[in-house]
Amino acid sequence: MTPIYLTPGPTALHPKIEQLASEALRTGICSISHRSKDFEAIYRTTATALRDLMNVPDSHNIFFLGSAHEAMERLIQGCVKESSFHFVNGAFSKRFFDIATECGKSALKAELPLGEGFNLDIYEIPQAAEMICLTHNETSTGVWLKEEQINNLKRRYPDRLIAVDIVSSAPYARINYQYVDAAFFSVQKLFGLPAGLGVLIANARCIDRAALIEASGLEIGSYHNLLHLKNFADTFQTPATPNVLGIYLLGGVSRELVAAGGADALRAGIDQRSRMLVDFLERSEHYAPAVSDPEFRSRTVITIKVNGEVDRCRRVIQDHGLHVGSGYGELRKSQIRIANFSMHTDRDYERLLEALSAASR
Amino acid sequence: MTPIYLTPGPTALHPKIEQLASEALRTGICSISHRSKDFEAIYRTTATALRDLMNVPDSHNIFFLGSAHEAMERLIQGCVKESSFHFVNGAFSKRFFDIATECGKSALKAELPLGEGFNLDIYEIPQAAEMICLTHNETSTGVWLKEEQINNLKRRYPDRLIAVDIVSSAPYARINYQYVDAAFFSVQKLFGLPAGLGVLIANARCIDRAALIEASGLEIGSYHNLLHLKNFADTFQTPATPNVLGIYLLGGVSRELVAAGGADALRAGIDQRSRMLVDFLERSEHYAPAVSDPEFRSRTVITIKVNGEVDRCRRVIQDHGLHVGSGYGELRKSQIRIANFSMHTDRDYERLLEALSAASR
Question: Which of B33, B223, B243 is closest, CB to CB, to A196?
């Protein structure tokens, strides 16, 4: 039996991928010029499907990059002259902070221990910070932010840019683009695509800021800086040859998700499976949700504290035909991570509970 | 009938791609973690196949990036403190120069009109230039460099780094890595892969230089800087989630090319088709090779000067079931471009000659 990937990304492919990929190979999608009308149509229809699915208004551009890491770098280069502010409580929020530092910015941060969540409402943002960098869903620890608190930040600091990493929560995350200047994700998480494509959503304030910073004589990156991305996106093109196949697949999966009821239907399925798993964990003596405060517990990446031998636990689960993620970094000694994405099913989760039960015996 | 893509990239897929892609989807390649032993094995075997095919010694690392453009940027950031030197005679050599400028370097250049080739032996390189940037095959004009003159440059300037763009000539290009510190290409050209992956080959001198520049307090890029690439490559990993499918396909196609006789067999086929086409052009009154000097005329991207209406010519060729490239930029009014890559066949070229004949009537 083919194993089921419940890993937090790369993960199981969306069931439509095989058909879409063979369609792409058959119809020459991978051979067309990225300067052709045919490519522009692919860019346009994928962007439209993403707007439908994720409620992205026309005020925001949709750019295609190599990865979410690249989105962090291009945002920092283009939007931050001197200082950004980061909420750090795991490996990926720390990565955003590190990228800002490596780009020569004076990056500031608020920090919490792994597994704890930020109550954004109580934080004051330093005057110097031009962009507030948030990680909606910290893939390393399974902690997420409350979207309404992101909006509050913008209400409290309307003059700052707000950038949100939604790598492992898009399109579940209820991002209100009225309050968010930029958001980005990669496709190998909830969308269930092969890795190798990042998506950056950014409004005119980000672009204007890049123009200002460039005019001041600072570097904002080269071929993929926000100004070049914007210029090419205006005619549905990209500065360099992009991952055309990935863009095509993303459009196809997004349309599929819209047809299946959109983000609300996707959220209902994820909520239901999350409840199923958390109820089990709370009744168990062998396991517990690793994030103790339910308010901050992610529903798309669920971390489990294992009382007992973690390696043995993962082995037993694997014997049941399921791949789950290890805890991130040092946490691999005490935790496992379970993805809850668009392609995962209630049946997958029933099998997971059986496997977890078996592993606790 | 499915059209044949003789475009200079993206282009026709290598005939093995469909099988390799369906293998990848079936066996879960796209679902495995990029931190797993399984991924390390894919990285390792792809790198080994590339070394076999392209004669890359162990002195040089093999890194995977998003595109060749990214390779230019990471090399400039990592290897150039103040000044690089560029030989510019087309859009892509100019892009390398522009990227250096946008990265804040004082980029210097020698320049020739479009369609002319550099006799590298007669140029003096300014003292200030730390890296000499070469475009082995200028995809926009179909002009290439002589590999032996690249080696001479290194003999004359052993203290400078030599970086060579081999985007549309790898693995045909006879690069002698004894004389070349860095080279890079993208996979949608001679290898016939879907776009979305760049390969950077770089030796320890490049890495050491990046360490030196970073230590001096300058930025060398963030997550994909040469130091991070090197650290991760040492265990066959990448700093961010890479295009795993692309790396897998590249390994498969490279092994296929090795099995079919390696770079020599590939060169023989390309040389034969190039002769076939150039002989035809030289006998024709309607066409001529756009690069008049045979010494500098690329065999992998052949540009044709059309006497008469270029648009009509391309239309007639298309009616014969062939897609050819337009001339680049302004040259689209007088030229067409023909790719001569690993997946193209003598039969494709016979059909091309028939179509060119028909278009000249």
Answer: B243
